[in-house]
Amino acid sequence: METLTDTLMKRVNKLIRPSRPSRKWGNPLLSTTPSSIAIQELALRTEALENAVREIALEVQELSDKS
Fold first, then answer.
1. Within 13 Å, how many C-alpha atoms sit on residue 47's CB side?
2. Region for 38 from its dihedrals, namely left if φ exceeds 0, alpha if ψ lies in -120 to 50, beta otherwise
3. Containing H/E element for 6?
């Protein structure tokens, strides 16, 4: 049986792609990546993090309401 933590982790992992440092062109962390591509990728990552934080906050609120 899955625990609440496992379930929440799966939901968050769906929202946030696992970060595996890629050393190829197009990685926003490399100085050789054009700024427009880096900014777009970082904006997508930020949006994913915002969604994950909302999921966590919702779960915490629901747990708080139950207790």
1. 6
2. alpha
3. helix 4-15
